[in-house]
Design a protein that fits this description.
The protein contains one helix and twelve strands. With 148 residues, the chain is mainly beta. Strands 1-2-3-4 form a four-stranded antiparallel β-sheet.
């Protein structure tokens, strides 16, 4: 795993990552942080390097190329968006561990980044190597607005 993308959920101690392995990994770090903080209390800072590897709690598979961006819904830690070189925007439901939507044909090239609106969580903004930014209403993907 080589993370190209990282996001920390606003509501819970959950981190998502994506990379060249085409997977989206979700990590629940709450238990790890508490355990490690308690076990390392009073020790030298050098001991932090010896902390065991954290294993992902969910592996999401659906992209066919590198995952370039991940972003949580600011209103719900159960909803995650990932974007990829494969030109797909995938919306994930972490309760089921499956995608709830796959959006294609939004961009003509690699999708490099995404952000979920905190003002209106029906909107996702994506940026692409085709030099465009798309603003997409995920409730009904009839069209996207483009900024070029």
């Amino acid at each position: 795993m080589a993370p190209y993308a990282l996001d920390w959920a606003d509501k819970e101690p959950i981190v998502a990552s994506g990379g060249y392995d085409k997977n989206v990994l979700v990590w629940n770090i709450e238990h790890k942080l508490i355990k490690e903080r308690n076990s390392l209390e009073g020790r030298d800072v050098k001991e932090f390097k010896k902390v065991k590897r954290l294993n992902e709690c969910v592996k999401l598979q659906g992209h066919t190329e590198n995952v370039e961006g991940v972003v949580f819904n600011p209103a719900s830690s159960n909803d995650l968006c990932s974007v990829s070189v494969d030109k797909q925007i995938i919306l994930w439901d972490l309760r089921s561990g499956k995608h709830s939507s796959k959006l294609t044909d939004i961009h003509g090239s690699d999708i490099n980044c995404a952000d979920w609106s905190s003002l209106n969580t029906h909107y996702i903004c994506t940026g692409s190597s085709d030099q465009s930014i798309a603003l997409t209403d995920i409730r009904k993907v009839l069209f996207s607005y483009y900024i070029e």
